[in-house]
Amino acid sequence: MKRYFNVTGACDAQFHYMVDLRERLAEIKKLVDAGEYFAINRARQYGKTTTLNALAEYLQDEYIVVLLDFQKMSGNDFENEETFANSFAEAFITAIEADADAGSSLSGEAFDGLKSMAVEGKVPGLRKLFISLSRICADAAKPVVLMIDEVDSAANNQVFLDFLAQLRGYYLTRRKTPIFQSVILAGVYDVKNIQMKIRPDGEHKVNSPWNIAADFDVVMSFSAADIAGMLREYETDKAAGMDTDRMAEFIYDYTSGYPFLVSRICKLIDEKVSGSSRFPDEHTAWTKEGGLEAVRILLSEKNTLFDSLMGKIYDYPELRRLTYAILFGGEKIVYNPDEQWLDIAEMLGFVKNADGNVKISNRIFEMRLYNYFLTTNDAQDSPIFKAASRDKLQYIKDGRLDMETVLTKYVEHFDSIYGDTDETFSEEEGRRRFLLYLRPIINGSGNYYIEAETRNARRMDIVVDYAGEQFVIELKIWRGNAYNERGERQLSEYLDYFNLKTGYMLSYNFNKKKSTGVHKISAGDKTIIEAVV
To answer: Does residue 38 sit in helix, strand or coil?
Structure first.
């Protein structure tokens, strides 16, 4: 069977192209060897289930691994203590019997006793369940590791908190009372916060029954090297002739290693871009241009990850406001883990702590948010957006974006709409107006992002992706010739990173004696096309 890039469910190296997990599995095993109880809390579609499956196989020589999935349990299974105890016992027995090695290692009177009670539905409660589990662990030929996936399914159930309390109690007395070597819980939400969702008072937040958990600091995002290794496997199979290191860097730049986004871009290149009219085969598809096309397709589709992102933007007005400030204003938002909206946004993988400041997690999320903020009803009603929409066909020549014409027409429309006012505005508003103008021109065929290295209150470089080409535009407020010349030098140097010979500048000049228009500037071997409004 041919392998493919998988974005639905757990990955299996036999069927799917995957990154090499052995290094992080070795890190996790250190926690297991130390007898730690811990939780793997990561965002949706972040590889948690894949990691647990791989870990179960990785540990099997030294441990008996029992892997459960709470997603397979219904709401009725958490109705009360007795029901849960019987459902858990049944799932525990089933998992062991499905594994021949585990079954032979755990067979015995204690195991048979729990099985008999589970079959008859006569496990009276958690106390009896854990007495049986303790006896099974004592009789086991090897230490037992319990792993539970999708623990979010148990959220808001008091009986699950009581289950955690039993785990905690046995953990604290395990030198005298045998129990699991290690317990690993996996889900999106931090188990320590589940009690907060049931009982919002501060005391119960602090006294979580899972306060025994060790920190889990294993990096689960993919590095560029991880991605390159996966692409080399693909290259071995397909002989696409790609530069695997360069493609890996490209994919990492856009995803910051978010596992789903990495796999989705790869899948789109392999299955949608390759074989299209512009990219007739793998060789042409696995290029920067093909990657940009995959990003365009990704940003135009609906998926559960994007739905979750936008849902949180709607649910938390403060998150919406500060996201807008970061994207358009270049504001530095101080990271504060005590902010509930921030804690949830970070837990869901949408933002991260970058040197004490809040940052959008990756470029794909940024681009999706830019598209959202610039296509709301209010945005589309703005006169500058409507002006671009009326004339957008003239900006595309032979399928290519003519950025010089875009700037020339922007100056004309800006002067026509705003020229009679004495209004001055901030860099934030200047950027917003140009992005509103640009959005309908490239809509459906291109995207743009703000280069992170230049995102601040005074300067932003917009990178536009259109039909496989990239354009770099610096936006700023005019602050005199010396400042402007420094900006020209910075832009010229920045173009080297993109291997471009032409760059663009848009300056807002509020000097009444200003000279508006578009002109070309030579900066070494580069040409800068500057527009002044």
So the answer is: strand
